[in-house]
Amino acid sequence: xxxxxxxxADRKTALDQRRRLKxxxxxxAYVRGNTIQFYEWLQSRSVRASLPAGPxxxxxxxxxxxxxxxxxxxxGNIDIQIRDLDQTVIGNPAHDLLRLGLSLAMAARSSDxxxxxxxxxxxxxxxxxxxxxxxxxxxxDAKNLEPIKRVMRQANRRHWRHLAEERIEGVKPEIPLxxxxxxxxxxxxxxxxxMIAGTDLRGLVQRTDKKTRDHSIRLIDAAYWMKGCSxxxxxxxxxxxxxxxxxxLHYRLLDVKEATxxxxxxxxxxxxxxxxxxxxxxxxxxxxxxxxxxxxAAHVVKKQVVVxxxxxxxxxxxxxxxxxxxxxxxxxxxxxxxxxxxxxxxxLQTRRAWIRDLKQRHSKGLNAPRWLWSGVxxxxxxxxxxxxxxxxQYALGKAxxx
Length: 402
Description:
The structure is a single chain. This protein is α+β, with helices and mostly antiparallel strands. It folds into 2 domains: about 10-155 and about 315-400, no CATH class; about 170-310. It contains 15 helices and 10 strands. A hairpin with a 2-residue loop joins β7 (about 235-245) and β8. The protein is globular.
């Protein structure tokens, strides 16, 4: 394998090709990588009028199943929380429920589950969300959910060695260039070194490990990181840093990700940070405190970036080949995660009022709220058609390239 598979000049072409391929893999993958289409649909006046007007709070903004998973806090405790806040804004929490409902519906479709399963999943989505919103449990319980338990067991067993082997393909203090990691320009390397030496990053490292106070921190190695789907095309770096203390040099892996303008509507009078990186960090602290305490806003090559210390326990759920009972229970659990994230921001009276509004719209029996069911139905049809067209264009592109 050549030392550098993709040069800085070739990045855009390679990233565009990878994005098209990933979004052609399944309808569920297409939904994960296409936040823009969801928010274009939301721009319709009739759609906005049909939704409940929830309280103005920090929402995920891109609340699909791949963005929920186990994360660790600085003490090593593990919980299921929202794990990607690129699109976070202060807005209507109903948007998160719609986005999650669409993602769950497409996950059911990818598992070849019947339509009745989707109806039952949306029922449990509201039940789980209200339960989480009510604060009935401090942490998420994944008992009897094998796809969730399997990932949680893996998260609990993981240490730096596993992170190194998975992310940088070895335990040596370097990031080997190859399909995932690409070479940097000299200017990018220089600016990453300056960022690591800055006070914001020193504060982040000291916050996540108090033993590093007053000890040196330096950049060991760095590379451009080809990762994700919706984020492909933005600047993204993997930075391996060395932290020296009395016991010697130990390593940390940082994810440095460009922060761009959020796609979704937000409350313009809410006083959100104008800096996109600061917005992401503020939203993470509100919605996912385990993650937020490991993040900082910075700048690299004149771009706003979010720096996150990666922990070995940070994993995501891959929901494939689900059984009906599993799919329904997972819908309830994931909605509960979102409900807790929203509820921790609300005063008791505001939380109760929002719950009352949801319950009034949620009739008894097999009836998800009309706004949720019709919204997911419209979105599923829209994304299904767009996915098939994407696959047609991808196939034509491949045929034309032969």
